[in-house]
Sequence to fold (188 residues):
Amino acid sequence: MKVKPTPLHKAVIFELEPIEDQRGFFARTFCKKTLAEQGLNFDVVQTNVAFNRHRNTLRGMHFQRPPYSEDKIVSCISGALYDVIIDLNSQSPTFGQWFGVTLTAENRLSLYVPKGFAHGYLTLSEDTTISYMVSQYYTSSHESGVRWDDKAFQIQWPEREGLIISLKDQNWNDFKDSIGSIFSSEGD
Fold:
């Protein structure tokens, strides 16, 4: 697998390097050694799948507060999504900036989301399935988020009308009204 940088500090994209023949292909989707060579320490403790029936389903922007902050590796198994991350690490050179990438079953890209980043996505097709590995167990007492349309970040979503969003995601506070600087340093 190839590791490609993003504009955000420590966030990267993984691109598969398939070995193909008449049967199809084989490709590595995760390699702890490859991540370590990039300075990324990722221990998988849980793998999750989210199925979305409808196009324009928006989930996010989620994170877990310290000490249960988590790294994630997000992949699209079927369909397509626009995946977005926001760097909330106050000591990071890219603090407050966002990045988005289209993940599809066809392009086989994955996004590495470091600790201290908010994460969310918008489905671009019906029947979209996302798989993500996480480095920390889900801890409901430390679950948090910021609004998907928070003016502090100016995220350029591909669609803004007719979105399907849970009440919980609609009711996250704006960043300036919440904790402000949620993560005091990278990796918290």
About this structure: The chain has a mean pLDDT of 92. The chain has one domain: 42-177. The CA atoms of residues 58 and 165 lie 5 Å apart. The two ends are 27 Å apart (CA to CA).
